[in-house]
Amino acid sequence: MFAGRYSEAHELFRTYVDANSEVDDAEWHLKSLALAEIIKFLDIEKQARNHFEATRQADIKGISPGDAEVSLNRALRSAALCALAWFNLAVTAHAQKKPDHAFLGFLLAGLIGRTDPDAWANALLLSLSPSKYNSLVVAVTLVAYKINGDRFLDALRKVAERQQQGFPAAKLLDFVWEVVNAVESPKGGFEVRAS
């Protein structure tokens, strides 16, 4: 994947997921989806990545919205795995009221940058909206928490609290905590429970 051989990596991820159906590793599923979307969005199967140029193009401070989108697309043509480009493209898509595009951008930023809890929090929030990606709510939750732990929960709380009045921020955080606790195995030899 990071060698720029996206189609080959996508096929390897799909083969692994299909051959190991008993393994429920949400990250593999998300990466497979992400690679399929990169291939479709950029119409490329492989790429000689130029991360320096992509990062330069992805820095859109002070650029008009129209020029920013052009610059971000150039960034992805230089290196499709530029987390900054995907994050900024997601912000742009969200401003244009394109939630599916925004979700994909934040998801890709999270998968590529990994330790960006804000990208993961935004991806989770957008997966909740009426979207073709709402079936990924649990997978995004699990991967985001696995990678970022409490930093993800803090970022999610902040993003949820910034939503319009009446948004069920507390219910969302309770749901996320329930999902995490339902699959996370104890890390020690015993567990203390309060009654």
Characterize the structure shown.
The mean pLDDT is 88. The protein is 68% helix and 0% strand. The longest helix has 17 residues, at 26-42. It starts with 5 loop residues before the first helix and ends in a 12-residue tail after the last helix. The chain has a single domain, classed as Serine Threonine Protein Phosphatase 5, Tetratricopeptide repeat, CATH 1.25.40. The chain contains ten helices and no strands. The protein is mainly alpha-helical. It has helices spanning 6-19, 26-42, 51-58, 65-78, 83-95, 99-113, 117-128, 137-148, 150-161, 169-183. Helix 9 runs antiparallel to helix 10.
Q: Nutshell version of this structure?
A:
This protein has helices at 6-19, 26-42, 51-58, 65-78, 83-95, 99-113, 117-128, 137-148, 150-161, 169-183.
